[in-house]
Amino acid sequence: MPFSPRIQARGIQLLLGGMMTRVHEGLRFTDVPKQTETLRVETGAGPVACTVYRPPATADTPAPVYVNFHGGGFIVGRPEQDDHICRRIAATAGCVVVNVDYAVAPQRPYPTAVTQAYDVVAWVVENGPAHGWDGSRLAVGGHSAGANLTAAVCRTARDRHTFSPLLQIIDSAPLDQLADPASKHSPIPKPLLAPRLMRVFTAAYVPDPADLAHPLVSPGLADDLAGLPPALVITAEHDRLRDEGDAYAKALEAAGVPVTHRVFEGVDHYFTHAGPVPAGKEAIELMAATLRTAFAT
Q1: Range of 227's domain?
Q2: pLDDT at 1 exceeding the cut of 60
Q3: Burial level of 170, CB count in 10 A (0-12/13-18/19+)?
Q4: Measuring CA to CA, which of 1, 167, 188, 245 is 20 to 30 A from 150?
Q5: CATH, residue 53
C-alpha cells in the first residue's frame, strides 16, 4: 500500500531538510559581512519570521529593498539555504535583503505560502521608515518554489493595484503544476528533479487538483501577463523546469513586460546552490547587477 502524499512529503522534509542548507563552499562569499537581524511579520496566514541583511552604509538615504523567497519544493522550509545569495546581493546591489521563512506543505498547503509571501512584501513596502529601508524602491525574487511565489506575489499586487516591484527575479521556477512531471524532459539521463519527487511536491502543496491550473499556482498557464513588473528569468539547460521557464520569459515579453532571460548551459536545477561554482557565481552576480540597474532607474 503506497504512502499518502502527506506522509511522503514529511519523509522528504526529514531527509532533505539538512541537505538543503549545504551550499557548495565555493559559492560562499567570504568577503561579505555576516551581520543579520530577525523580525516577525504578521500576515493573514499567521506570523512569518524574516532574516534581514543590510548593505554597507554608503549613503545618507535609506537603501532599496529586495525580498527573497527560498526554494525546497514548497515542502522544505530552509531560508538559510539562500544565505550566500542574500549576503552577496546586500553587499553588491546596495540594498536591504529580507529573506522570508514562509510556511510549507504538507502542514500548511496552498494558499498559505502565497498569502504569507504577498503579505510580507506588502508589509515591507509600508514599513520602510521604521526599519531603515525605502519600500518605494522594491524588488522581489526567488529560487525554484520561491520563484513560483515571486510570480504569484507580482500578479496579486498587479491585480490589487497595491505596489509595483521594480524587478522580479524568476530563477528555475516551477510554473506549470498541471502538467505531468514525466512530460518535462531533460537532455541528461538523471537530472536532479525526478518525476516521482516532483509529484510528491505538487500533491503536498496543492491537495485539491482543481487548483493546479490557478494562475497563482501555475503562473505559466496564465494568458494575462501585461502589466507585470520587469523580470530577470534564469533557467538551466539540464533542468526539467527549463522549458516552462523559457516559455514564461517569452510570454512576458510578448505581453510587453521588459525581460532579461538567461539560459545557463551545462547545469541543472539548483546550480546557484550546488554548483558548478563558475556558473552559480555568474548567476548570482547577474541577479545583483540586474537589481543594481533596476534600483538606479
Answers
A1: 5-20+37-296
A2: no
A3: buried
A4: 188
A5: 3.40.50.1820
**What average pLDDT does range 64-71 have in this prediction?**
97
User: What are the angstrom distances between the C-alpha of 154 and each of 23, 44, 162?
Assistant: 28, 17, 10
Q: How confident is the model at residue 269, as a pLDDT? A: 97
Average pLDDT of 170-185?
Answer: 97
Contact 71, 100 (CB under 8 A): no
Q: 284: number of CA atoms within 13 Å, CB side?
A: 28
For the residues 245-257, what does the mean pLDDT come to? 98
Catalytic residues: 144, 239, 269
